[in-house]
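Step 1: inspect the first sequence and its tokens.
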Amino acid sequence: MPASIEVALIQDQHRGSADANLASIERQLDAAAADGAQLVLLQELHNGAYFCQHQSTDEFERAEPVPGPTSERLGAVAKRLGIVIVASVFERRAAGLYHNTAIVLENDGRLLARYRKMHIPDDPGFMEKFYFTPGDLGFNPVQTSLGKLGVLVCWDQWYPEAARLMALAGADVLLYPTAIGWDSNDSDEEQRNQRQAWLLAQRGHAVCNSIPVLSCNRTGVEPDPTGHGPGIRFWGSSFVCGPQGEYLAQAGTDDPALLRARLDLQRTEDVRRIWPFLRDRRIDAYADLVKRYRD
């Protein structure tokens, strides 16, 4: 494992089609690699609009197999540029069986692994349970040439159990492709609170596990396809933080951004020596964590 990693996050907006989105991504991958990036994280469901604002069987036409067109196209870019890419795919596993899937592409172009989103939301504007089957691959970091990547997806970022299990399996970094934003009907105060909660939850995972976190969100306004709802204003704010939750880089809320940072992987060891959370866990007293609720 290298002592440090140069990372990049591509925060982007929907550009009208999968080809347009992927063309934009490829241009930014070229720019990131030219600037020294070794690992690049893309946002959730980056090939198209965030279609989960409504329920329509037509949207299943967006799905593709893995391996498939996106993994092959981005795998070729990973090989050409010599970078590791973490991407996001609407996976068609079988007829009527679909997942929200992150894929990890090695710097030689190989598809190393996939992670199927485990926690699936069902809220106004985020009707993902209609489309996605909960993941069944568990919380297993992916061994790459740059270390072990703990890849999770969006709604997973609210669950400390997911982050902890990745850390307990030796993840060197946590990565979250994300699509989250505001409902314009909410007050300014509520919108501020939601964004801050999102930032704090993920920084908390960094602190409590003493590992860096990368979170890449969408930006831009996407209308409700039905015309009945207010649509979503994705709040961007993609960021990289270190093992004490310290910001290493952060994007704005409203514009595409190519975010760059350097991760010092030795800091995890240094921080864990002074804050030995893993040492002091009372694993003999946590059995009730597997219950839904302690009645």
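Step 2: inspect the second sequence and its tokens, then contrast the two.
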Amino acid sequence: MKHIARKRFGQHFLADDAVIDDIVRAIAPQPGQALVEIGPGLGALTGPLLQRCGALTVIELDRDLAVRLRRQAGLTVIEADVLKVDFTALAAGRALRVVGNLPYNISTPILFHLLQACAVVQDQHFMLQKEVVERMAAAPGCKDYGRLSVMLQWRYRIESVLDVPPTAFEPPPRVDSAVVRMEPMPADPTVDAARLSALVTAAFSQRRKLLRHTLGRWLEAEGVDTPFDLQRRAEEVPVAEYLALARRA
């Protein structure tokens, strides 16, 4: 029985064999590695990954698809909302390689959820809306640079590795897509993640205004007195400066 893509799950299934092959080559899975696939769907990536690594854990919310996946040898199927999965517990002391064609409607929450488990991840390869990938990798001073850029570049090296057209999917999405590679960097114990998140959120809350109107008020409310150039907009401040401010705040 043919599975009909469900809009509420943001389902767009990969259907282009050449693109699938390119993605698998970019991931380069090896036997014995702890691979986790988010949103395997109809298994377009699952099959080729399984052939190379021998075993694979998949996280699938759609009950009907989970039933199908359980019929495949070598798969451990977690039927759950990925935002409720504890990746640190799932790692069980291993370094996870996380992959997936993420639902575009909740891709940013998934990225922030995984950020909390960054310490147990070897790398991540995700299919995302191309616009999101551009925001993730954006440099200071451009319109794409924002809260997502800062919070992810703080912990990952980010690289766009492949552009994917809508025609590679069934049904085709209305946007271009891209595959991004995310490699965790060592944690800086001097930076408090919650504090950094709060000040970056304040900085980008009204990105057209100078920071003295946003971040400046946040610093004042928090009782933080530190030299920092607030006569700039949030998009002009490099990640390193946000980190330095978080250490002092």
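Step 3: confirm your contrast with the notes below.
The beta strands are 13-14, 34-38, 56-59, 75-78, 96-101, 121-129, 156-164, 169-170, 177-184. DSSP finds ten helices and nine strands in the chain.
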